[in-house]
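step: validate -> pass
step: tokenize input -> pass
step: predict -> running
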Amino acid sequence: PAAALEFPNSHQEVFMKHKFIPLFTLSLLLLTACAHLPSDTPSRQMSEPLTYYGNYLIGEEDIDAFSEIIRNNDIDYDYKHKLQTPGDTNGGMAISADEYAELWNTEMEAQYEKLYALLSGYVQSGEISETRLTELSDAQTAFLAFLQNDMMFVQNTLGPAGEMQEMGSYGTAMINSRYASAYRQRTIDLMEYIYLLDHSALQFVYKND
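step: predict -> pass
step: emit ->
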């Protein structure tokens, strides 16, 4: 499996103590990041229309089934619920953005490992070439490298501590939300590959027990 890359100025960077994101603005940022939430279960009813997922799925049944699994993930549900809890401070909500990114990063890594293991089984049975494992590893490494380089540029040039400081006090929340969004989308992509190979193997690792 592809080795994880180091993020020297990643979403784990300490928030600047003298800059706090206004409550309503950070709420908007984070609610936007987890906008596609479960909307078809009694306890999670939402007013927005259903979002459908899948780049390679064929057939309405598969699209519906896959999309329902993604929509009903506990990561988005827990963090939108947390953002709607009264009494949270600006600083607390800013930290929530970092926690949200961390959860999606952990889920992404777990789904990558699951896909790698699934493909390894096909390699052992002779159904596919071992080259497919190398391609998956290279793709994951390329994704992590792109995200690292992109966010290093943003942080060092436009971020709150960057040379241009174009983001102002909103920068840290925006950067963390960007990490969360990137990890979330990559997780969905990996899960679609798993679904195409084996419907029964698809499930989220994170559970809000």
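step: describe -> Confidence is low (pLDDT under 50) at residues 6-26, 38-42.
step: cleanup -> pass
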